[in-house]
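User: Can you write out an input/output pair for a complex, sequences first and structure second?

Assistant: Here is one pair. Inputs:
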Amino acid sequence: MSVQIIVGAQWGDEGKGKIVDHLSEKVDIVARYQGGANAGHTVILPPVRGQAPRQFVLHLIPSGIFHRHVLCVIGNGVVLDPVALMDEIGQLQEAGIRIDGRLLISHNAHLIMPYHKRLDAIREEGAQKIGTTGRGIGPSYIDKYSRTGIRVVDLLDRDVLCAKLKQNLETTNELLKKVYDRDELDVDRIIAEYEDFDKKIDPYITDTADYLNRALSKGKAVLAEGAQGALLDVDHGTYPFVTSSNPTSGGACTGLGIPPTAIDSVVGVVKAYSTRVGNGPFPTEQLNETGERLRKIGGEFGATTGRPRRCGWLDLVSLSYSCRINGIDRITVTKLDVLDSFDEIKVCTGYKVGNRVLARFPTDVQTLEKVQPVYRTFSGWNEPTSDIRRFSDLPSKAQSYLRAVERLLKVRLWLVSVGARRDQTLSVPRR
Ligand code: GDP
Ligand code: IMO
Ligand code: MG
């Protein structure tokens, strides 16, 4: 058995898409295990026949799709928006990427309905705004856990689908009218729209847990692709400013139906600095020129919503926590090149509240909002790194920075990314 889990170690957008695409060359299956179209995973394909490199942003389809030998799975832990899925399939097919026979969708995955998106938007008008992506993620997981959700398998039986949809729409319309004083949704229109998905989606639906376990017993290599990041985990993140699923490595087992004993390795994807989209505490945030430079050089604008990402220095306190709760045994540091022109690079090595040094990462927002980061400063290398292909060719100051991160986190540095393209990835020799 061989499963490698790829987790975002921060607040998402660490470059998981690029790393999963890079690693896909050597695996048989790539499987998404949680989240939904709130994810935006960017993959850049090498130029073909002198054309410019092509960029794709994937929201639901695993980032292994660009390797012809890879089979992609959308697991039971994902909340699936059929509209977004069909759109994504269409775009990929138009670009000449074959999907048929290469995509399997769990019959147990829950669906995102138009009313989930509506409720997501309405809740975001309230006082405690999370800054969600507006993709209906929270409301869909609410239905899943309150056992009123509609699953992919329900699309295949019109009577079941209509009955469940009618019931849910009645409840939602009552909520919209009585609680929120809003217009009701058109039940017939929604039923007609969703009835239509059965034919389109049918060829992809299967029992993916069974498929994956069989594949594992045949010795196939599986890459489990996490969406979001550990600090957005509903249990372990900066609650309530989190998403509604478990991006942490444990989510891969429940979200795919594979046993913990099948996991070989957990790879943490770490951006060389920190970003966060949406609200919530961010101790190392730089609300100054440094933050603006990181955003500009790093192109830090949301791949899903286009929102500017909040930017700051690398935070080893939250990262150590992330490594521990995920069981990360190696890290991949991305976007090193973004730091190329900084004279000084800071890394947060501790948190203080008043004169008290905190022993560990606090996940309660009240404390986290009060912490003062303690920084260690590295001198910048002031040289371009994007064209470097060997770790030993990186400027020595960049190597020192990376090795210090490795040492402080006590986790092996495995890969370093110096650009968004596949080939801009360096293997790191063991120390
Ligand atoms: P994901 O959600 O974790 O897959 O990350 P996103 O795709 O949302 O955001 C990462 C952004 O950084 C994308 O625009 C990538 O193309 C880009 N990117 C990934 N790795 C690197 C890198 O090493 N250097 C630079 N400059 N950009 C990168
Ligand atoms: P990838 O997979 C960054 C954030 C939102 C918001 C919070 C809750 O591309 O790394 P939600 O729509 O999930 O209810 O929003 O989580 N968020 C992400 N931030 N990257 C993502 O995905 C995210 N998915 C959700 O901005 O703060
Ligand atoms: Mg993203």
